[in-house]
Amino acid sequence: MMRKLTIVFFSPTGTTRKVVKAIADGTGLEYDSIDLTLPSSRSQVLEFGSGDLVIMGVPVYAGRVPSLLSETIDSIKAEGALMVPVVVYGNRHYDDSLLELKDILEAKGAFLIAAAAFIGEHSYTAKVAGGRPDSEDLESAKRFGNGLISMLNKEPDSPAKFDVPGNLPYKERKPSKPDTPITGDACIECGICARNCPTGAIDFNDFSSADPSLCIKCCSCIKKCPSDAKSFSDGSVVSFSGWLEANCSERKQPELFTPVI
Ligand SMILES: Cc1cc2nc3c(=O)[nH]c(=O)nc-3n(C[C@H](O)[C@H](O)[C@H](O)COP(=O)(O)O)c2cc1C
């Protein structure tokens, strides 16, 4: 049975969005997009049912699904929907995030027909997985999307189960020290940073001021700034970036998981 395709994603620096869109493009179907990146979009209740195919993508934060999404994902209704969880990570590891997303969606009553972990340029440093997803990744995402359609065409009564890597209990969420990017003289006060901040942490009356209790260090403001005025000056993001550059430069490949039908 053909289904209505919807993509749902959270993507502060745009890599998850690119991957999920490429998968959807690969299906050849028309689709609706639900972008959960901005705070206003996360108050909607997502409701899917037996006529839906949903590809849901999130970036990996500290080996988990971003905690910011907990409420939104908790309120999803997905009884009978076919879903495809996708995580995008910055070439370190996706740890328990894909298992966590799969478990959440299955608990909502969705049938999962496939899952995937892709690689995106690390939010903290362009020296790790710089430019990814690149053309090779996007081709792989499109092929994966095309494969979903073949699976739909021979859809059994209840889709076969499959496993993804990950451990229980999931990786512990450790509190991170509050910090916000600094703003240099190059700031042209365009406000792109504030309008795109996923938590509304940046002050609309003073774009150089951000609330450390709201900032999730997603780096949206840094990567979207047209004049490169934002950066983390020191602290955990800078020191961890150095560790990533030294230890996570070897190219990882997308991992695709499908049931054996
Ligand atoms: C707070 C935070 C935590 C992250 N944790 C991980 C991680 O555990 N493993 C990893 O490989 N990448 C990690 N990353 C990198 C992102 O998962 C990666 O860059 C992803 O492509 C960003 O997605 P987006 O472009 O949709 O925002 C982290 C990024 C941020 C901002």
From TrEMBL:
GO terms for molecular function: FMN binding; iron-sulfur cluster binding; metal ion binding; oxidoreductase activity, acting on NAD(P)H. Keywords: Iron, Iron-sulfur, Metal-binding. The keyword Transcription regulation does not apply. Gene3D superfamilies: 3.30.70.20, 3.40.50.360. InterPro entries: 4Fe4S_Fe-S-bd (IPR017896), 4Fe4S_Fe_S_CS (IPR017900), EFR1-like (IPR047964), Flavodoxin/NO_synth (IPR008254), Flavoprotein-like_sf (IPR029039). Residues 5-149 form the Flavodoxin-like domain. Pfam families: Fer4. This is Ferredoxin. It comes from Youngiibacter fragilis 232.1.
